[in-house]
Write a structure and sequence with these properties.
Layout (H helix, E strand, L loop, with lengths): L28 E6 L2 E6 L3 H13 L17 E5 L5 H9 L4 E6 L2 H13 L6 E4 L1 E2 L4 E5 L25 E6 L1 H7 L5 E6 L5 H7 L9 E8 L6 H8 L3 E7 L7 E7 L2
Parallel strand pairs: 3-4, 3-9, 4-5, 6-8, 9-10
Antiparallel strand pairs: 1-2, 7-8, 10-12, 11-12
Length: 260
């Protein structure tokens, strides 16, 4: 898929503050319009949010395997690491009648996730404010200053990202996430959980089956997760493709879909 040069064009721009809902946010917020969508983000997260938006909408990193995000009405989509809702909104608007279940560990981002789903007409979506991990409990969550690239892993957020002191968040296994949303199976799991992806997959191997998850889109973050180990786990029951972006050496994408 060719890159869209729109990064240097005005595909999206910033508008005035949302005075009508300003009281609900501890920091000033702005709207980023893109196409027929509008996203509310904290003012201090603008640059990182635009980068994340272009990653999903312009570069379409989750769509490098044709039609992997094409879903039938009634399908369920699990968005792990939903941030402020960019992917959840996109997949819901492009696949009418799907059920979106979004999980976000950063409690501040989770507030914006709720707003953006409602603002863009995503009805019936489920939201879980918590982290996905190996076992249930509570853990320190290291939140980056820019909102993205936050993780359960100590040291993942370095000084260049301006990490805060860890926030105490609830942690759920992947199986518990399924239970929370009353899911027997899902058509697509998109996973962007900043280095914990391998641990989650191997601790929930019973769900790595086409009977439970038909398709996977996983952002892998070496050295915290091994792409080779993840591919080896998935390729037993799935066709697998990978994509590595030389401009972002700490990240690659693994796509998997059922063989049958």
């Amino acid at each position: 898929m060719s890159r869209v040069s729109a990064l240097n064009k005005t595909y999206f721009f910033l508008s005035r503050f949302l005075a009508c809902i300003e009281e609900y946010f501890p920091l000033d917020s702005v709207v980023i319009p893109y196409g027929g969508c509008r996203f509310v983000v904290p003012r201090r997260w603008i640059r990182a949010s635009l980068s994340n938006l272009s990653h999903i909408y312009v570069l379409r990193d989750y769509e490098r395997v044709p039609c992997l995000t094409c879903l039938k009405p009634g399908s369920a989509v699990l968005d792990l690491g939903a941030f402020v809702g960019f992917f959840s909104v996109k997949v819901a608007r492009e696949n009418r009648g799907v059920r979106v279940c979004a999980v976000e560990a950063n409690p501040f981002a989770c507030r914006y996730l709720y707003v953006n789903l409602a603002l863009n007409g995503v009805r019936g979506a489920g939201v879980l404010c918590g982290a996905v991990g190996e076992k249930r409990g509570f853990s320190g969550f290291y939140a980056a200053d820019n909102g993205v690239n936050s993780s359960l892993i100590p040291g993942y957020v370095d000084s260049s990202a301006g990490g805060f002191e860890p926030i105490r968040v609830g942690v759920f296994t992947l199986g518990e996430v399924f239970e929370r949303f009353s899911l027997e199976n899902v058509s697509l799991v998109k996973m962007d959980i900043e280095g914990v992806e391998e641990r989650v997959l191997f601790s929930s191997r019973e769900l790595v089956s086409p009977d439970r998850v038909e398709r996977w889109i996983i952002e892998v973050h070496p050295p915290y997760s091994s792409p080779g180990r993840i591919v080896s786990l998935l390729e037993q029951d799935y066709r697998v493709a990978t994509f590595f972006d030389y401009e972002v050496p700490g990240q690659l994408f693994v796509y998997a879909w059922a063989k049958r």
